[in-house]
TrEMBL record:
Name under which the protein is recorded: 8-oxo-dGTP diphosphatase
Domain of life: Bacteria
Residue ranges occupied by any Nudix hydrolase domain in the UniProt entry: 2-128
Family to which this protein belongs: Belongs to the Nudix hydrolase family.
Entry annotated with the keyword DNA repair: yes
Keyword annotations: DNA damage, DNA repair, DNA replication, Hydrolase, Magnesium, Metal-binding, Mutator protein
The keyword Hydrolase is annotated on this UniProt entry: yes
Gene3D superfamilies: Nucleoside Triphosphate Pyrophosphohydrolase
Length: 144
């Protein structure tokens, strides 16, 4: 069984999280996800995420902490291990290089989007732990 390690960023700004809609040129077009990508050889998950967000959205992020990963199989013999990380936006303006759109989404609107199947457990985890994550972000910002 092949396990593909993939990171995703839960990028927060002003109490909302950045959600990205997959473009028509991507697999699962039109579905929503947290942006990120595959970990390359000799790359840490955090390094991957910083690189992927720069490549996909043209912005810089700071990785704060990991959340619970999720294994999902889209095809027989292959599992995607999606590794989410709480992040904050550092700088840059969003430029959509892969996705068709992005939205800053509040907790109460998270479940209204049509999510890619691998992201659904991460959405559930985020929804359940939203207040804890927000507190960590506030605490982290006071340290910065």
């Amino acid at each position: 069984m092949e396990v593909v390690l993939v990171t995703c960023a839960l990028i927060f700004l002003d109490g909302k999280v950045l959600c990205a809609q997959r473009s028509d040129s991507m697999q699962l077009p039109g579905l929503w996800e947290f942006p990120g990508g595959k970990i390359e050889k000799d790359e840490t998950p955090q390094e991957c995420l910083v690189r992927e967000i720069k490549e996909e959205l043209s912005i810089s992020i700071q990785v704060i902490c990991p959340l619970k990963p999720n294994d999902h199989s889209y095809s027989i013999g292959k599992v995607i291990r999606l590794m989410p990380f709480v992040c904050i936006w550092q700088d840059g303006e969003i430029n959509l290089l892969e996705h068709q759109s992005v939205e800053w989404v509040a907790k109460e609107n998270l479940k209204s989007l049509e999510w890619a199947p691998a992201d659904i457990p991460i959405v559930e985890d985020l929804f359940e732990n939203w207040n804890i994550i927000q507190k960590q972000l506030v605490d982290k910002n006071t340290e910065l």
